[in-house]
Amino acid sequence: xxxxxxxxxxxxxxxxxxxxxxxxxxxxxxxxxxxxxxxxxxxxxxxxxxxxxxxxxxxxxxxxxxxxxxxxxxxxxxxxxxxxxxxxxxxxxxxxxxxxxxxxxxxxxxxxxxxxxxxxxxxxxxxxxxxxxxxxxxxxxxxxxxxxxxxxxxxxxxxxxxxxxxxxxxxxxxxxxxxxxxxxxxxxxxxxxxxxxxxxxxxxxxxxxxxxxxxxxxxxxxxxxxxxxxxxxxxxxxxxxxxxxxxxxxxxxxxxxxxxxxxxxxxxxxxxxxxxxxxxxxxxxxxxxxxxxxxxxxxxxxxxxxxxxxxxxxxxxxxxxxxxxxxxxxxxxxxxxxxxxxxxxxxxxxxxxxxxxxxxxxxxxxxxxxxxxxxxxxxxxxxxxxxxxxxxxxxxxxxxxxxxxxxxxxxxxxxxxxxxxxxxxxxxxxxxxxxxxxxxxxxxxxxxxxxxxxxxxxxxxxxxxxxxxxxxxxxxxxxxxxxxxxxxxxxxxxxxxxxxxxxxxxxxxxxxxxxxxxxxxxxxxxxxxxxxxxxxxxxxxxxx
Length: 544
Ligand SMILES: Cc1ncc(C[n+]2csc(CCOP(=O)(O)OP(=O)(O)O)c2C)c(N)n1
Ligand SMILES: [Mg+2]
Hints:
Bound molecules: thiamine diphosphate, magnesium ion
Number of strands: 18
Low-confidence stretches: none
Helix content: 40-55%
Structural class: alpha/beta
């Protein structure tokens, strides 16, 4: 057998359905072997698009998304999407071709040390130096990528190795370790701290989604009567409509939810990841008791010193602690929750144009069914989405908040549609982030994934302007011109709509979902609300 064939057999053995990428000279043997494989290759228009597709595929499914490039420039183009997956804890396998092993020791056309290049953005970065080790390398890559905390495994396959012959080797059996139950004494210790608490609060992170423990989380909160705040990447772990839900934290400013933290004496962090929300922002005084419930030990941080750490399967830990802890009788957060709910609905009937962020989100939520999947890009729109989009189910609002790279939403929404063909898939993006990977509209059309792209058009790097205004009271180099997004969409063969009045927005989104093709909506946004929010939060009086 050719080594490239063995490599592809190993990927099939891992259950790979799709590989996203761009063929090149140095991976022609793998590309050829893929013709005789059950794996579908999705040809993209930029390797970054391929990496982001793998990223969101991994995040939504829990199974590694796979992306592939050639050596040198192809591989460097993968970098941003791979880094995003790695820091957002999405399992991804990145594969790159490489020049022959006979020329890697010297200056040579397109040769870069890829293993070292991917090292800081992967959990495992390796080169296949002998065809015989292919089954071990592939198995290890998948195992490392999927175990907590998930991330990227990078494999470089030199062209001479890919072309070589190999005998007597076959894929290794796939085994996935089950996380252990937490130690009983730790469960009891946490139970006692929570029972003795006056004002406990839960902060749930993306680890809850990865552990598929959202139902246990809700039961835990209900049984013990404790309010739940969530991070951006945990949207939907508790339905927003639930009376114990406080919404998302992490705008990095004072917010209503942080009032809950100010009041709390015990903060129960479940599947929480500090890449999302630095502890000094919510635990400045370092005097609260922190209970850490997660698969892995806590990161060291002077603002995150634990009272108790309960390690092991998150769902089991929550069930066991709920068994032994004493429920609270009263609920302190009713006013707080009502304030958040009222704020979300305040502009529901607003008619002003360009459209205010709150109103765009309100209409989007009204139009979309609860199981629709929204992928946010990164910018001011992300902050508003994180704060105000009401997610009822996990993995229905995907936000990159570890690496937080612009450009994720268009490729990401294509991946979501491949996984869930029956559910509406919407990218919510800034005009700048859209232009970073808009070339993938062609991919979506070619492979037949109906997606909606809702562009918040301000002809600016809106979030950066927001920061500049806040710090300096003026802005620097944030303006640009946009193409005509409607014509741009049409030039691909997609549909394009422009929203001319606020009344048009909801029907346009509804129509775009019904169109069942690739649709781009150009929606003018009024970002004067950004600084108003900053001013309001600066003057916040806690409603509890
Ligand atoms: C790849 C990348 N480049 C730069 C940044 C820094 N950055 C964060 S948001 C932003 C502006 C985003 O502009 P746009 O997409 O128009 O969204 P808006 O803020 O206007 O909603 C920039 C430059 C980033 N996060 N990712
Ligand atoms: Mg913008």
